[in-house]
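Researcher: Please predict.
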Amino acid sequence: MNLRYSKKVTGTIRLSFLLATLAVAACTGLALRAGHADAADTSYHKWSLIAIKETKDKYPKAALVDYSHIGRTQLGGGLSEEKFKLWLRQADREFGVFVTVRFSDAEDRLISVAMSETPR
């Protein structure tokens, strides 16, 4: 039996594992940042999946090492932004990417996704 996988399959498996891990963390409260043990804020979960997908599309050869939810900003006019920092590894370099996901509050609809690499 040949157990070798293509890079595409391995990347898909890695991304699927990460998404499953994020879902479990959100459901069990492991994603707590504010120290409130009684109520996990999972309102950003949908937007984190979009941030990860868009980053993977822009950096298809990079492996996702870690991610962090920075926070939500209310922009007014029914718009909000969720900000994330993703840490990637590609070839011999590791780098961070800030991802800002803008969306409509009332419609729960994606407006835009912006990315910028961290200087280090």
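Model: The chain has one domain: 7-117.
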